[in-house]
């Protein structure tokens, strides 16, 4: 049985992320989406909110689960008994960073491999940062994120404006 993890911040999950999730779920037996709780970053959504949105967005995938984690990716791979890390690539700049991380992880744990999936051309330009910026200026984000994220993102941004 091939267990894989797809780690990320997912702040928020985009259709680019969903593309990778859908494709990876067809390759592996079990796909665990690891939602990173990184104290060094200031995410818009809490880890609990990101996990909930991802669970809602992926409920149709029978072999996908969503789990929060913090710390080293390799430790998360060990905890989940996963031997494969899935990473999405949008551009060559992503590759340079991801290659370095993959090699470091492999040095730390030779039994864990990394598989890169190139993002569909439909989403190669898309990032969570871009989506948040569009939403902050009142733009239409429906084509960029799962339906469950649209209302959550608008509510979060409106709540920040009131503060």
Reported by name, the CATH topology is Rossmann fold
How much is the radius of gyration in Å? 16 Å
Q: Any idea what the shape is?
A: globular
Average pLDDT for all residues = 94
| Count of helix runs | 6
- The quaternary state of the protein chains shown equals single chain
Looking at the overall shape, the CATH architecture is: 3-Layer(aba) Sandwich
Count of β-strands? 5
Provide the succession of SSEs.
Answer: EHEHEHEHEHH
Q: What's the end-to-end separation, in Å?
A: 49 Å
Largest sheet: 5 strands, parallel
Which secondary-structure class do the elements indicate?
alpha/beta
CATH class: Alpha Beta
What is the beta-strand fraction?
A: 15-25%
Count of the separate structural domains: 1
Proportion in helices: 40-55%
Read across the widest sheet, the strand sequence of neighbours is 3-2-1-4-5
Question: Uncertain spans, ≥5 residues at pLDDT below 50?
Answer: none
CATH superfamily: HUPs
